[in-house]
TrEMBL record:
PANTHER family the record matches: ALPHA-D-GLUCOSE 1-PHOSPHATE PHOSPHATASE (PTHR43611), FLAVIN MONONUCLEOTIDE HYDROLASE 1, CHLOROPLATIC (PTHR43611:SF3)
Keyword Nucleotide-binding found: no
Keyword Protein biosynthesis: no
SUPFAM superfamilies reported in the protein's UniProt record: HAD-like
Enzyme class at the top of the EC tree: hydrolase
Molecular-function GO terms, alphabetical: hydrolase activity
Protein name: HAD family hydrolase
UniProt cross-references to InterPro entries, sorted A to Z: HAD-like_sf (IPR036412), HAD-SF_hydro_IA (IPR006439), HAD_sf (IPR023214), PGP-like_dom2 (IPR023198)
Keyword annotations of the record: Hydrolase
């Protein structure tokens, strides 16, 4: 019997988003969070997640854009902003019932240290900075399907509804990860039942 295919996002599903990092940057730059996020979004976000710039280029951009910051403190803040959420505790159990795949908009340099202790539960890892395209671009879902090898059905969990739409278009079953973790019960019912 073929195993189910479970595709999981990282931020907001298995680990925290980088919200604490952005709060720290806002404080360091002495600017409102909305302004910091807006400048980031307009100037560098897409290139960062798509891997079109290097991690050192991101840090250079930060120091040039926000000259008052303490770079070493921010690098430490970024590392400390990634901590596990409850979903990570289910990987071992779910791996007994499904092939687990990661599909995440992230930087490989930041996320692999977090994922390393769990790699043996994962069938594939697709990080946007490595493949050059980010969700919700349909191409990243095609890359994921090629990794999976066309085995359907696919169950996909993401914390952003706009990332679920292309997955649904490809025929994947989707679950929106909520902060109250009801999504975990849904995955349990779908995968373990």
């Amino acid at each position: 019997m073929k195993k189910r295919q479970l595709v999981l996002d990282i931020g907001g599903v298995l680990a925290t988003d980088l919200d604490n990092f952005w709060f720290t940057l806002s404080e360091e730059a002495q600017l409102p969070l909305e302004i910091v996020r807006s400048v980031y979004k307009q100037e560098i976000r897409q290139n960062l997640w798509n891997g079109n710039i290097t991690e050192p280029e991101f840090w250079d951009w930060l120091t040039n854009t926000f000259p008052n910051i303490k770079l070493d403190y921010l690098k430490e803040s970024l590392t400390n902003s990634l901590y596990p959420l409850d979903g990570i505790n289910y990987l071992k159990r779910w791996a007994n019932h499904a092939d687990i795949h990661i599909l995440s908009n992230h930087r490989a340099e930041w996320i692999y240290p977090f994922l390393n202790p769990f790699k043996h539960f994962l069938s594939s890892i697709i990080i946007s900075s490595e493949v050059g395209v980010a969700k919700p671009d349909k191409e990243i879902y095609e890359i994921c399907m090629n990794q999976i090898g066309g085995n359907l059905p696919i169950l996909f969990v993401d914390n952003k509804s706009e990332n679920l739409i292309p997955a649904s278009d490809f025929g994947w079953n989707t679950i929106l990860a909520d902060s109250s973790n009801q999504w975990i019960n849904t995955v349990e019912n779908e995968i373990v039942r």
